[in-house]
Amino acid sequence: MLQILELFGGIGAPRKALVNLGVPVKSIDYVEIDEKAVRSYNAIFQKDLGYKTQSVVGWNLKPDILIHGSPCQDFSIAGKQKGADEGSETRSSLMWETLNIIKQMGVWKPRVVIWENVRNVLSKHMLHNFNRYLEEMQRLGYTSNFEILNAMDFGLPQNRNRVFTVSCLDGTFFNFETLEKKPMRNIKEFLEGTEEEKYIVTQPSMLKLINKTTNSAFNGRVEIIKDHCKTITCKQMRSPNSGVIDLGDGRYRYLTEKECWRLQGYSDEDFEAALKVHPGIQGKLNGALYKQAGNSIPIPVLEAIFKQILN
What we know:
Elements: E1 2-7, H1 13-20, E2 25-31, H2 35-44, E3 65-68, H3 95-104, E4 112-118, H4 127-139, E5 143-150, E6 158-159, E7 161-168, H5 204-207, E8 229-230, E9 244-246, E10 252-254, H6 257-262, H7 268-277, H8 287-294, H9 299-310
Parallel strand pairs: 1-2, 1-3, 3-4, 6-8
Antiparallel strand pairs: 4-7, 5-7, 9-10
Helix pairs in contact: 1-9, 2-7
């Protein structure tokens, strides 16, 4: 039985990846402060209905694998690159709590620690914090390696680049070059084909941004989805977003909540379980389910990482 600890656990992508691989797994704890995400997690993993919100600060237990996807907002361009300097009280500075947890474990430590974050953590403004993280992990006895991985290389038609850092306690150097990758599937396999009114783009501010030419890679443009979408975000009714579907008659629609979950690797059963506890408002987009998809880690990427670790 593999024991994992999920910090900033969201809706449980690491645990879901191991379940998909058929690995007997026990989440010895799941730490997440977002009450709505906790509800979805409990609904997806029906055997564990007792999880409540809790902060990562001051937490302690002993897993085999520790996974943390600390809040990325203050690393990102959208978050105005506020950074994660210790003591800064930004959301992203919570990454240091993971190190505090490992230090408090004493002699016994997780064999593997996995950290996922936005690629902007490697930018010139943020690199000092990333390098310090690697140095602290080395002091704790870990050998670390990192790589930018794109969900498109693991079968998902989503252009999502994220930095994955794998730190091993036994001196093993995790080799990202040998990860098992999969051909990207066409996004048509993930779409519902709906023309429901609530998904139709009607806001003039959004319509004028569709395929607009811009010098900025980040602001001022909403792309039309063809064979893949852009990064799944927490909100679709903003720029940038994941892109829009051209309905062919002058109308465009947003990706649905279920499509966003599918594009992160979740099953329809997972989505329906979360929908039951977050039914939303009739005729309105379900903000909670969009946010949970946008904050998640693509499950097939985690499957490939776990498969290599276990082998």
